[in-house]
Each structure stands twice: as structure tokens, then as C-alpha cells.
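Shipment paperwork, digital attachment
Item: protein structure file
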Amino acid sequence: FTLDHWGNLFAIPGLLDSVIVSLRIALISTLIATTLGTLAALALVRYQFKFRKGIDLFIFLPLATPEIVLGASLLTLFVTLRIPLGEITLILAHVMFNVSYVVVTMKARLAGFDMRLEEAAADLGATPWQTFWRVTFPLILPGIAASAVLAFGLSLDDFVITRFNAGQVQTFPVYIYLKVQKGIPPQVNAFATLFFVATVSLVAIGALLQRRRANLKP
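Attachment content:
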């Protein structure tokens, strides 16, 4: 047992670069997927329109499709469209499978939403934009935060789909895979521990904030 490797986290060539790439892709894909997923969930829960059931089924397909099939299909799509493999294709791939998880999470959150609150705001003279930001958004914010944390974790952890569509880009999971044959550096375990602690901390903070908000309610 030693803590020496925590003092030289950046001593291994390529390790820090792979971590930065993973964080950048995870943050960008999470932001896009959370925005699109939240808007899609609002539309699917609140409105009746043509092809609604078909769109709902289409959103659930990535959840039921094996990752190796999904990764190979996306690779075929990018090659057919002649899109160079790299960070752009990784972001698109991560957004595609993360949107489904965001929609599922947000639909569960919106299922118990009291529409009378929005109607009351409208009766008091609030515009649709004011109603959304001052009434709807604060109430669904815990669901949005939970969706974002889930999407970020899935993006950071993904290997199969990333391996198919990464090209020459090395994310943290891909870096670990390439180092298996030669031996994984101890610094990798230190970075993995940091990711684990950060993720658990975010979940704990979210749970505490929700409990605090529940206790403040009359």
C-alpha cells in the first residue's frame, strides 16, 4: 500500500491527454443530450401529435440495442457519409445513446408534474417563457440534473461504441484497453478513483439538495 503514485499522476505519457479528451467529450455530449432529451420528453409527455408512438419507440431503440451493434452501425453511417472519425463522431455517437437515457429519466420526472401550477402562472399574467423559467424549470431541475449526471457517467465510461468510432482519438477507457497487454500503470487506478469519488459526490450532493428542498416545503 502506497500513496506515492498520487504524487506523480501526470508522469505517464498520454494518460493526462486521454483523461482530458474523455472529460471534454463527456461534457459536450452531456450538454447536448440533456438539452435535446429534456425538450423531447416535454413534447412526448405533454402533447399528442402524429407519429408520437413511433418517435417514442425510436428513442427507446438505443436502450435495447447491443452496444457492439450500435457501434458498428454508427461506424457504417459515418463511413458512408465520409465523416472523418475523431472527436466529432464520438460526440455524435455519445449524444445519440445518451439522449435515450435522458428522455426516460425526464419522462419519469414529468409524469408527476402538476400542470395547474403553469395554469396558475398564466392566469396571473406570466408569458409562456416566464412560466417555463420561473415555474416549470425549477420544478424539473432535479430531473435535469439527474439526467446530466447519468449521461456524463455513461459517456465517460463508454468503451465499445467509442472504440468503433474514435479513429485515432484515445479516451480514458480506450487508453486503459491499449495498456492492458503491457501492464496498466498505477496512476490509472488513481485517476479511476478520482472519477469514482467525483461521481459519488455529485450524486450525494444532488440527494442532499433534494432532501433539503423537500424539508423546506410547508
